[in-house]
Specification:
Layout lengths: L10 E4 L9 H28 L6 H18 L2 H10 L3 E3 H34 L4 H4 L2 H13 L2 H12 L8 E2 L6 H7 L5 H34 L4 H30 L7 H25 L2 H10 L3
Parallel strand pairs: 1-3
Antiparallel strand pairs: 1-2
Helix pairs in contact: 1-2, 1-3, 1-11, 1-12, 2-4, 2-11, 4-6, 4-7, 4-9, 4-10, 7-9, 9-10, 10-11
Length: 307
Amino acid sequence: MERSNATFVMEFILLGFSDLPDFQRLLFGIFLVIYMNILIGNGLLIIITKTNPTLQTPMYFFLGNFSFLEICYTSVILPRMLIDLWTQKGNIPFLSCAIQNCSFNILGVAECLLLAVMAYDRYAAICKPLYYPIIMNHKMCVQLVIASWITGIPGLIGLTYQIFSLNFCDSNKLDHIFCDSPPLLEVACGDTYQKELFVHVAALFFVMTPFLLILISYIKIITTILKLPSTSGKSKAFSTCSSHLMVVGLFYGSGSIVYLRPKSSHSAKSDKVFSILYTTVTPVLNPMIYSLRNKDVIAALKKILPK
């Protein structure tokens, strides 16, 4: 396919919710409240996991890091989206779009990997209780967190370069709420099959590999729990895993629908809905899921919050 119509794109236009002009201010208010809740809720989890003596365990160390990651993850998307809703303009410079895309992908992969690390922590605690302090010592915990953050960086920088080295000739308008890979590939001209294949392979590797590790961990956890003699022991073991499983289900469920379904079944509206789900709903529910189902977190929150 010839690329005679190709032009160098200086900026993209994020259409976002431009099809709902009468609701821009209302949507701004809703997402502002959501963003503030994400910052406050996850911020509180970070504070209590760092300062409360009873929460100085690997599980809460990972939870504090996960909450920090949630703040970073949403801060790549929501502030920009709030500006677009307020100004009712979706213009974003080419370089800013590339940085947002790369940052979003890196943080998304880090979240997948950290969820896998948290599943491994639960596996070690339940299946290897006698060796747990040795396996999950502080040095190992720090190394696992660092590995979660940096593992995807080289590959995802390469993926971003591959996408933004394409020619964009048909339009610079992205029918999405941020600079995500699928809508960028849709407005690129020429044969984008190899780039799309690269995106799907990257998604399968960086998303499904941690998911399989989580699945294997929980198969072994459930097998071990079912062998416990006492009902109270089974109940306590399951309760330590239920919050993590809920977060995994929310994040992976919505993310897989967007990135792993066939291109023929994509629609702009459904992509926006699922993108909102895994970029805002999961981070805002994370503190509530962990605090409402965890007595230690509730007790720690009571100590720092006014009655």
